[in-house]
From TrEMBL, chains A, B, C:
Organism for this UniProt entry: Pseudomonas monachiensis
Membrane topology, record value: Multi-pass membrane protein
Protein name per Swiss-Prot or TrEMBL: Trimeric intracellular cation channel family protein
Keywords: Cell membrane, Membrane, Transmembrane, Transmembrane helix
Residues spanning the membrane: 12-42, 54-74, 86-103, 115-134, 146-161, 167-188
KW ATP-binding (keyword) present: no
Domain of life: Bacteria
Signal peptide: none
Amino acid sequence: MLYFQQMLGTAVFAITGLLAIQKVGVDLFGAVVLGIITAIGGGTIRDLLLDQPIFWIADFNYIWVALVTSLLAFFLTNRLHKRYQLLLYLDGFAAALFGLVATEKVMALQLGAPLAVMMGVLTSIGGGIARDVLAGRASLLMSREIYATPVLLGCTLYVLLRDTFPSIRIAGWIALILTSGFRFLAIYKGLQMPAIFSTRQR
Amino acid sequence: MLYFQQMLGTAVFAITGLLAIQKVGVDLFGAVVLGIITAIGGGTIRDLLLDQPIFWIADFNYIWVALVTSLLAFFLTNRLHKRYQLLLYLDGFAAALFGLVATEKVMALQLGAPLAVMMGVLTSIGGGIARDVLAGRASLLMSREIYATPVLLGCTLYVLLRDTFPSIRIAGWIALILTSGFRFLAIYKGLQMPAIFSTRQR
Amino acid sequence: MLYFQQMLGTAVFAITGLLAIQKVGVDLFGAVVLGIITAIGGGTIRDLLLDQPIFWIADFNYIWVALVTSLLAFFLTNRLHKRYQLLLYLDGFAAALFGLVATEKVMALQLGAPLAVMMGVLTSIGGGIARDVLAGRASLLMSREIYATPVLLGCTLYVLLRDTFPSIRIAGWIALILTSGFRFLAIYKGLQMPAIFSTRQR
C-alpha cells in the first residue's frame, strides 16, 4: 500500500516536473531527465547525506516509473495541462507523503527528530529545486507560494505524534491528512506568504 | 592504453569546458575550477551515487591533468578557438569513452544493465551540466544539439554486446566507434533533435 | 576554542549568505534555507566526497546556529546592512578558518597535501557557490573579486608549514593570520584580479 503510494507519488512528481519546465522549451531527452530528477532528486540527496544506499539503486522500479511517466507526459502535455489543477493537488499529496516517509526513515535510524524533519522537507522539495536549477528557472525557494511550509509543519507534527500515539501508522495518517490539507487549502485559496515574511516589500 | 585514453579525455573535457564558458567572462581561478568540474564532474556524481571511492581521490593524476590543461587553455584560448572543430570531435570521443567506461564499471559491480546505461550517460554529460549550472548558462539539457543521445544509444548497445561477444574489449571498441561515429555525424551535419521530440514548436 | 570559532564562523556565513540574497526577493523559508546552505554547504560537499560522516549530522548544533542566525538576520536585515563592512571582514576570517580546518582534516586523514588544499578551498567557497546557484545569482566563480585566492594560498602555506613547524597549532595560526590578512587587504583596497588573469578583456 505504502509502496504503491510512493510509486504513484513518483509518477505525479515526474509529470508535474515535466509540466513545470515545458514552457522553457526542451527536447525529449532533457525533458525526461528533468522529469526523473524531479521525481527522485530529493530522496537521492537525502540518501547521500545519510550515507544510505540510494533508494532507486536498491529498487530500480522508481526509475522505470519516473521514466515511463515522463515519456508519456512529454507526448500528452496538452491533455495533462487540462488536468493541471488535479495534478497540483496530487503533487501536494505526493510532497506530503515523501516528506513523511523520509521523516520516518530518519526516525527509524534514531538520528533525532530535528534531522528527521529537515530530511523530510529536503526529500519533499529537493527534486523540484534541482529541476529548477538545471532548467534555469527561479526555484521555489524564490517563490512566495506556500509549498514547503505545510511539509515543514506536517513533519514536525509527525515526530511529535509519533512518540505519543500507540501506532506510528495512525500518527502518519493524521500528519498526512493535515499536511495535504494545508497544501490543498494553499492551492485552493491561492495563499501566499504574508508580506512580513518576505524581503520583497522592504 | 585505456588509462592514457582517459587522461586524454580528461584533458579534452577540461579544454572544451573552458572554451564553453569563455564568453561569460571569468577569471583564472573560476575558469580553472570550471574546467576541472567539466572534466571530473560526471564521474564524481557517479561515484557518489554508487558509494564508490571518488576516482580522483583514489588517483589524483586526474586533477593534475585537468588543472594543467585548464591553465594552459586559459592562456591559449585564442589559439584553441582556431582548432574548435577538432576539439569538438575529440570531445565527442571523450564523452563516448567516459560513458562506456562508466557503463562497464557498473556492469562489473553487477548492479544491472539499466543502471549501467544510466550511469554511463550521467558520467558523460554530468560534468558539462554542472559547469553550465555554475556558470549560469543554459545547460545542454535545454539544447537541441544531439549530444547525449549517441552516448545513451552507445551504452545500451554495449550492455547488449557485452554478454554476447566473447570479449568485452571487442564489444567496447565496437560501441566506442559507433557512439563516436554518431556524435561525429551530428557535429558534421549539424543535426538537431526532430521537432516532434521538442516542446519548442508547440 | 576552535569549536567556538567554528560556530561563530557558521553564524557569520549564515548572515552574509542571507544578506547576499536579500536583493533577490525571497521569503522567510527560502531565506533561512539559503542562509543554512551558505553556512554548511562547503563542508557538506567535502564530507560527501571524502565519504566522512556529514559534520552537521554528527553535531546538529551547526544547523541550530545557522538556523537561529538566519532567522535573526532575516528580521534584522536593515540593521545588519549598516554593519556590512564589519560582516565582510568577519566573513573573510570565517572563510580562512573553514578552509584551514578542512585542510587539516584531510591532512589528518593522510590523503595528501594537494587534496587537502583542494578540500580547504572547496569547504571555504562551496556554500556561497551553492547559495548563488540556488538563488539564480552569478556565483563568485564569475566574479573578479579576490575571495578564493587568499584561501588557496593560505591552505597551501599551511600544508608547507605544517611539516616544518614543531606544532601544527602555530602553523595554523600563522596561516590563519596571513590568509585573513590577504582577504582583509582585498576588501580594504577593493582589489580585483589583474586583467591578464581574466577573459573579460579579450
